[in-house]
Specification:
75 residues; mainly alpha; 2 domains
């Protein structure tokens, strides 16, 4: 029984790594992302208001860190 569980886990991990490591797997992933982007464009509101606020705050924080990093490089 234990052997079956291990083989199942290994098979599952192999499928997931194949989707990342193979050219076809990456292409499928890119296609899925494109589909999601198109769905988001066609929706009236993709993010909840709370998610939009959270994402906006996160982006501002990342921007600030990038500015700080750039300023340190120039010194």
């Amino acid at each position: 029984m234990r052997s079956f569980i291990y083989k199942s886990i290994i098979a599952s991990l192999k499928d997931k790594t194949d989707s990342i490591l193979t050219k076809e797997g990456r292409r499928e992933t890119v296609d899925k992302v494109r589909d999601e982007i198109n769905k988001a464009i066609n929706k009236d509101r993709y993010l909840s208001k709370e998610d939009a606020i959270l994402l906006n705050r996160f982006i501002k924080k990342i921007k600030q860190e990038l500015i700080e990093a750039e300023n340190k490089e120039l010194d």
